Amino acid sequence: MNARDLGLPMPGGDPGLARILRKYAATLRPPPPATWYEHFQQVLGETISNGAPSLEAVAGRLAVSARTLQRRLSEHGTTWRAELDTARQHRARLARQDGPPAMTSLARQLGYAGPRSARRALRRWNDPSSEPV
Fold first, then answer.
1. For the domain bounded by 32-128, which CATH number is listed?
2. pLDDT, tens digit, for every residue of 22-67?
3. Cα–Cα distance, 10 to 101 (Å, whole number)
């Protein structure tokens, strides 16, 4: 079976049962992350949502020191700054799918101190030539 087969209609399916199962599935907790890195990304996303995406806050949620978190990220070939930037970029793309949100709202959703910081980041993401050397 291919993953795309899951989206195909079921000719003999019971719509009433499908509604019940969807409702039940919505109450279930998502499965735990499979790897440390996936867990880190989940915690980072939650921390951004809470408005305080700092290295120390994420490290605390993972029950490690900030330095240990940096070492772990290094083992995965990345850095705190790169991960934070990537997570914010992803959230910005999702937020802008429904139309351009107000910059103040977007800044808050991305965990920036204010709209000016968010605007600079959006410019940087949209113009790769503006990356610092």
1. 1.10.10.60
2. 899 889 988 777 899 999 999 999 999 888 799 999 999 999 999 9
3. 38
